[in-house]
């Protein structure tokens, strides 16, 4: 297993392990078909196996992890059909989130998004994949949170746990303009409180990576 989390606080261990693994999925630190070993993870985060097992069971219920057997736990490799379903849901839900965010966005969040874009451009230029992926997901989830619709935000969060590992495979093949260009358009729309333009920008951002993500799925599943 290549992913190596650091130790976590010993209060609320179950939720802490869950949050650690959730973040690893969203930011692509865990790769498609990567195998997770409970005892190895427990040793790395400094806990017993119980909170790790509980977190993995919860993520499996959310379909963010796949339990092939009790000892064979893997990050799912999306099929084309699964990817297309997630893309459709993201277009609808993130579009709605951006639309609502345009109504409620605060100056403080606008500044956070501005800094995020600047740092993402730098990370891409320096080929700092881990940081670029973190900043990309952070941008999308911050916009969703700004919609002030907690249930919607939680749905989008779960979709990112599913799609994050695939995006990580393709991210450095996406041009900087594709990676942050629509983020800049979305930020401008949010500043104007333009709901329609905000929804359009985030949907186009999702669609721009469509062909690249499909190509990675086809590469990993060659035709027989």
Number of strands: 3
How would you state the average pLDDT, rounded? 88
Q: Which strand order does the major sheet show?
A: 1-3-2
Number of helices: 10
Radius of gyration: 18 Å
Helix/sheet category: mainly alpha
Shape: globular
Summarize the structure.
With 224 residues, this protein is mainly α. The protein has helices at 13-26, 38-45, 49-61, 80-104, 107-125, 129-146, 150-170, 176-192, 195-208, 210-220; strands spanning 35-36, 66-69, 72-74.
Can you characterise this structure?
This protein is mostly helical and 224 residues long. The protein has ten helices and three strands. It has a three-stranded antiparallel beta sheet with strand order 1-3-2. A hairpin with a 2-residue loop joins strand 2 and strand 3 (72-74). The two termini are 28 Å apart. The model is unreliable at 7-12 (pLDDT under 50).
List keywords for this structure.
globular; 3-stranded antiparallel beta sheet; mainly alpha
Write the layout of secondary structure elements.
Layout: H1 13-26, E1 35-36, H2 38-45, H3 49-61, E2 66-69, E3 72-74, H4 80-104, H5 107-125, H6 129-146, H7 150-170, H8 176-192, H9 195-208, H10 210-220
Antiparallel strand pairs: 1-3, 2-3
Helix pairs in contact: 1-3, 1-7, 2-3, 4-6, 4-7, 4-8, 4-9, 5-6, 5-8, 6-7, 7-10, 8-9
